[in-house]
Amino acid sequence: MKYSLFLLLLLFSFLFHSQAQTIPYGQCGLQYTYDAAGNVLSRDYICNNTPPGGRMGIIANTNGATEKEQDQKIVVQQVEALYPNPTTGRFNVTFLQALDNAVIRIVDINGRTYRQFKASGTQIQCDISRLPAGMYSIEIIDKSTVISKKVIKQ
Predict the structure, then answer these.
(1) Where is the signal peptide (predicted)?
(2) Tell me, what DSSP letter sits at residue 145?
């Protein structure tokens, strides 16, 4: 009896297991934290910038090089956070690596450029308070890398 009850519970645990809430690589979204009773404890805006497997931009040589020589890191510019989003005007963008005289453009959904400037460092602040409410794209062009993120102005 105990054995069959155990098997039944094991079967239900496999059928009705809950999967952890995940945000896909390179995407941002809301992540909720719940207590044991199912009540929402917090709501956080999270950007997932960790590549699948946890290794960042690794390529390997296959020409017989030693294992130490095989892992060559490729530095790829990534946005760490864009907040607050949605915004009423000012928002911040932080990066994993510092920008070096990068071109920043604020573009509407029709492709019209509203503002363009150059920036350096690991954080920039943008002000779109004079623009009408809507969805905008912030384009960051740093060396050969182009990053585009959406911003909603309320």
Answers:
(1) 1-22
(2) E
